[in-house]
Amino acid sequence: MRHYSVMVLRSLCVVFTLVLAGSAGTVYAQAIPVPVADDTPNTGDTWIDGRLKDINSYARRYPDSFVDELARYANVRRGYVQALLEQHHWQPGDLYFACAWASSMNLSCREVVRGWSRDHHDGWKGVIARLPIAPDNLHYRAVRHAIVASYDRWDRPIPLDARLLDQLGDRVQRRARAQEAARAAEAAEQARL
């Protein structure tokens, strides 16, 4: 059903392009299909789906920051991230989810990317069901926490549901814990010298 909807939208874009070209008095020998992004991640978690759509917007506006985030915190090579975004036209939210989900399962991001590339007709929910490790609530929880941490690093507001607020605290509490962890890491580094 999802694949069919994408095909219909693409067809409508081609027809619209032809209509505009005809009204301008220009005739094209061949219509160039306009890529249409399917922005419904279908991860099985509506909160994550909403954030992934927002990550798409953020990454388009701040592409370097997005690539840095995946390289630094998801341990994915910058070149790989850039190739998927630029050459393979991945949606940033999909790539973020692939890497965050891989991290939650101790898999490589490439393994999850391959799963999506092989078959994603039923969205992320279907892809993760076909991975070698059965998904559970702890995996979703890890992805939700990773998203909140990314938003905090991006200094981007994020709505938290009651469960996340209970687990992670508000922004002020999260910032205080992050500063405390940074001081502890610095002290440990100094002790090694």
Model description:
With 193 residues, the chain is mainly alpha-helical. It has 2 domains: 1-36, no CATH class; 39-159, no CATH class. It is built from 10 helices and no strands. The longest helix has 22 residues, at 2-23. Mean pLDDT is 84; it is low at 2-37.
Q: Element order, helices and strands?
A: HHHHHHHHHH
Rg, nearest Å: 20 Å
How large is the count of helical segments?
A: 10
The average pLDDT is 84
Q: Any idea how many domains?
A: 2
Helix content: over 70%
> How much of the sequence is in beta strands?
under 5%
What is the number of beta strands? 0
The helix-and-strand class reads: mainly alpha
Short description:
The protein has 193 residues and is mainly α. It has 10 helices and no strands.
Notable traits:
193 residues, mainly alpha, 10 helices, globular, disordered N terminus
Topology readout:
Blueprint: H1 2-23, H2 46-61, H3 63-73, H4 78-86, H5 92-105, H6 109-118, H7 123-130, H8 137-153, H9 162-168, H10 171-192
Helix pairs in contact: 2-3, 2-5, 5-6, 5-8
